[in-house]
Amino acid sequence: MRGFSKAIIAGNITRDPELRSTPNGASVCSFSVAVNRVYRDSNGEQKEEVSFIDCSAWGKLGEMIGQYAKKGSGVLVSGRLSQRTWEDKNGGGKRSRVEIVVEDFNFTGSARDNNSGASSSRNDDTSSNIPDDIPEGEIDLSDVPF
Predict the structure, then answer these.
(1) In the list 17, 34, 76, 78, which could disulfide-bond 104, CB 3.0-4.6 Å?
(2) 94/83 Cα distance (integer angstroms)
(3) Alpha-carbon distance 82 to 114, whole Å?
(4) Predicted structure pTM score
(5) Tens-digit pLDDT string for the chain (146 aa)
(6) What is the CATH number of domain 1-39+46-110?
(7) What is the pLDDT of residue 29?
(8) Could you give the angle at the alpha carbon of 90 between the alpha carbons of 89 and 94, nearest 5°?
(9) Can you list the pairs that 137-144 forms with residues at least 24 positions away whose Cβ atoms lie under 8 Å?
């Protein structure tokens, strides 16, 4: 049987994405997404837990995320799970990390929801991380290859 992995998360970027290039020139963007979950415990008390999910995006998608995404941006991310292992630099043995290798990325919410402020509270700042060069009006879908 062939394996399959797919992860879909929605949350907020925890820090400004880091865009870099590999030695062979490939672009890769690394960022982390905070995913909140609200639930009730056995006593009926409402609780909240936060998971921090590491993500990496390669090529043009990574470049786009590095250019437009900011800390606090609401995002919807989907991709495959990837586990990396390495030797600890201090001789502490093997280390491991699971991350999402991004295949699809979307901003969520309105421009006001995606402000670049460090706090999660809304304010009257009109600056936004939504790009200004998105065309207005109808988009011709005849060039889409599917």
Answers:
(1) 78
(2) 13
(3) 28
(4) 0.70
(5) 898 999 999 999 999 999 999 999 999 999 999 999 999 999 999 999 999 999 999 999 999 999 999 999 999 999 999 998 888 888 778 889 999 999 999 999 744 454 443 333 333 344 445 556 656 666 566 665 55
(6) 2.40.50.140
(7) 97
(8) 65
(9) none
Tokens of 123: 């304010």
Phi, psi (degrees; rounded to nearest 5) at 67: -80, -40
Two structure tokens written together for 37: 């979950």
Its sign, for the CA torsion 109, 110, 114, 120, is negative
Residue 90: what residue type? N
- Cα distance from N-terminal residue to C-terminal residue, the chain: 29
Q: Using CB atoms within 10 A of its CB, is residue 65 exposed (0-12), middle (13-18) or buried (19+)?
A: buried
